[in-house]
Amino acid sequence: MTKRSHSAATRFSSRRLLPICAAAFFVLLFAAAPNLAPVSATPPDAIKAPPAQSQAFTKEKTTPAAAAEKSAAEKTSTEKTSLAPPLATTRLSGLSSTPRLEQILLGGTPQNKEELKAMQERLRQLAAKVIPVTVGIRLPSGMGSGVIISEDGYVLTAGHVSNRPGRDIKVILPDGRQVSARTLGANYGIDSGLVKITEPGKWPHAELGDSSRLKLGQWCLVTGHPGGFDKGRTAPLRVGRILELSPGTIVTDCTLVGGDSGGPLFDADGHVIGINSRIGNELYANL
After folding, report:
1. Which of 131, 89, 129, 123 lies closest to 105, judged by CA?
2. Is position 225 annotated as part of the catalytic site?
3. Looking at 191, 210, 253, 269, which residue is catalytic?
């Protein structure tokens, strides 16, 4: 949202980034895939407990035919209920790469002009891929950012941006067009939210990464719409390193300001590894 936040956050992929110089909390994507589905806004204390299990159990069939039938049914059920896209494990196509460049991007430091140029070219290539999938989110209460993560228009953002489900909002595309969308809900425990574009179309989208594979010092980049969407510019791309990893949070030194909330954090292979969640005045304030 456009209002800057200084509060701390708890430690967040699917199948399951300040002048203000500050690091942001990023919702780790490694264990959040189940939370990408629409969630209810019902408070925890209003959720009824499931009925107690009966102490009388029927003995399960153990014949080979019954076992095969059960296995097929479980497979079909999994295929029907798995809505989240698979995690990407390789870099996006069209990105330059050498063994030394990959070593640098995983936490090394460029040692000469040639290495700096190689890193610069990789970032230029990444910008062409990640900026088109970064969107603005216009709500009645303000502005935020998000990233399209599927061809059919699912948009990942921060929970405090999407808020409760069922709200009609606008998603602002990089070219300034506004398309209708609806909030699907939020998980406030990890500050993740989901929005769905409701207009027909095939949308450019980012791939989800695996944040369990991240390392301290690894280079990363963030996009978003600081101060809200501005039709006179593209989404600014900012580069930094991962400073801290803990269950649920990634702290980086990517420069962020209000309005970046909900924007994506990418690794150097172009995969979404987190979502801008909270912004502090100092790098060490984001715990």
Report:
1. 123
2. no
3. 191
